Amino acid sequence: MNKKIITTDKAPAPIGPYNQAVLTGNMLFTSGQIALNPETGELVSASIEEETKQVMENVKAILEAANVTFENVIKTSIFLSDMNQFSKVNEVYGSYFNELTAPARETVEVANLPKFVNVEISVIAVLD
Question: Where are the transmembrane segments (predicted)?
Answer without folding.
Answer: none
